């Protein structure tokens, strides 16, 4: 598809600055732009590229002030990042939707399937499962017994949902993720072996949750492991039994959350964060990448870093000292030599 700058500006309620008739048929990062491409500038760190980009059209914020000549046509919008996301959504929808049920599926007679489904090849749907309207189950998805999936949910190839789990409306789960596998529950016995503790609960994903690829969310021992409405979970994340993730919390890749931890709403958790079990993370917390959370955090909205984690500002000051420790050690050794020489 091909659009003029004027047409795109009309979609976005933006203002064209340059040639309104220039046409684009693709999108690219601003530093990789080519003629006929559309890019955007939202982060000031990338401003230098707007003066050299070959993209024909660039979305910018209304308050952007150029300091050099720009070859591209600009479209000024209220929020360039949001506007670009809107265009990406339009392109995605234009690709068309998958519909229909493959002949190579296994659906148990007691399962209920809603209207307008897409069910790809080699999908299995278990006894008494309930699948909502407009649900898309891509090839090789497994749906266990008594699972409920709400309307408009999308499960990409190879997703596995164990028995009794509940998936809300407008939930997206990416390829290879496992929902409802057993929690890591074992008790030591007198003979030195470990006895498995049955995991009898389930997992609940509320509406508008999105789960990345190859993530594992364990079922509860009793009750439910819960991911609240609007939370976004990245790839390669481990969420253990009886964890609760608050509304609209976002968690980046390779984070691990141990059993029964409670994470508040609106939190931002960086990549490779480790959170021990049975603690609480307050609402609005920001946890920097590779931090270790070993005890309850207390103040809503704090920013922490380090392992064990503490206040971000204090951590940065400590790091300024820590990275200079080799030089400080050498200075101390030299001072010790001088002191010994004076003593002699």
From TrEMBL:
This is UDP-3-O-acylglucosamine N-acyltransferase. HAMAP family: LpxD (MF_00523). Keywords: Acyltransferase, Lipid A biosynthesis, Lipid biosynthesis, Lipid metabolism, Repeat, Transferase. Pathway: Bacterial outer membrane biogenesis; LPS lipid A biosynthesis. Residues 21-89 form the UDP-3-O-[3-hydroxymyristoyl] glucosamine N-acyltransferase non-repeat region domain. Homotrimer. GO terms for molecular function: N-acyltransferase activity; UDP-3-O-[(3R)-3-hydroxyacyl]-glucosamine N-acyltransferase activity. The keyword Zinc-finger does not apply. Its EC number is 2.3.1.191. NCBIfam families: lipid_A_lpxD, PRK00892.1. InterPro entries: Hexapep, Hexapep_transf_CS, LpxD, Trimer_LpxA-like_sf, UDP_GlcNAc_AcTrfase_non-rep. Belongs to the transferase hexapeptide repeat family. LpxD subfamily. It catalyses: a UDP-3-O-[(3R)-3-hydroxyacyl]-alpha-D-glucosamine + a (3R)-hydroxyacyl-[ACP] = a UDP-2-N,3-O-bis[(3R)-3-hydroxyacyl]-alpha-D-glucosamine + holo-[ACP] + H(+). GO terms for cellular component: membrane. It is an enzyme of class 2 (transferase). The active site is at residue 241. The keyword Lipid biosynthesis applies. The gene is lpxD. Catalyzes the N-acylation of UDP-3-O-acylglucosamine using 3-hydroxyacyl-ACP as the acyl donor. Is involved in the biosynthesis of lipid A, a phosphorylated glycolipid that anchors the lipopolysaccharide to the outer membrane of the cell.
């Amino acid at each position: 598809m091909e659009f003029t700058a004027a047409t795109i500006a009309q979609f976005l309620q933006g203002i064209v600055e340059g040639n309104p008739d220039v046409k684009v048929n693709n999108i690219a990062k601003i530093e990789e732009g080519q003629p006929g491409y559309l890019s955007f500038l939202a982060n000031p760190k990338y401003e230098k590229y707007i003066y050299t980009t070959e993209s024909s059209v660039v979305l910018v914020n209304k308050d952007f002030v150029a300091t050099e000549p720009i070859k591209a046509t600009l479209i000024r919008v209220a929020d360039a990042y949001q506007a670009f996301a809107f265009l990406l959504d339009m392109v995605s929808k234009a690709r068309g939707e998958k519909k229909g049920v493959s002949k190579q599926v296994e659906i148990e007679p007691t399962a209920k399937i809603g209207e307008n489904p897409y069910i790809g090849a080699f999908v299995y749907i278990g006894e008494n499962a309930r699948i909502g309207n407009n649900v898309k189950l891509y090839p090789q998805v497994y749906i266990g017994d008594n699972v409920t999936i709400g309307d408009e949910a999308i499960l990409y190839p190879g997703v596995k949902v164990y028995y009794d789990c509940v998936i809300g409306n407008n939930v997206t789960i990416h390829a290879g993720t496992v929902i409802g596998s057993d929690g890591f529950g074992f008790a030591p016995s007198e003979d030195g072996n470990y006895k498995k503790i049955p995991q009898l609960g389930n997992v609940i994903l509320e509406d508008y949750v999105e789960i990345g690829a190859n993530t594992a969310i364990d079922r509860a021992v009793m009750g439910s492991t819960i991911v609240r409405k609007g939370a976004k979970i990245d790839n390669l994340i481990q969420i253990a039994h009886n964890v609760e993730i608050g509304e609209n919390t976002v968690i980046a890749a390779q984070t691990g959350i141990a059993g029964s931890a409670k994470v508040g709403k609106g939190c931002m958790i960086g990549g490779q964060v480790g959170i021990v079990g049975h603690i609480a993370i307050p609402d609005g917390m920001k946890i920097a990448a590779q931090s270790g959370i070993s005890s309850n955090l207390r103040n809503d909205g704090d920013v922490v870093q380090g392992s064990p984690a503490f206040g971000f500002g204090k951590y940065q000051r400590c790091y300024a000292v820590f990275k200079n420790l080799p030089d400080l050690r050498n200075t101390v050794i030299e001072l010790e030599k001088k002191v010994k020489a004076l003593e002699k």
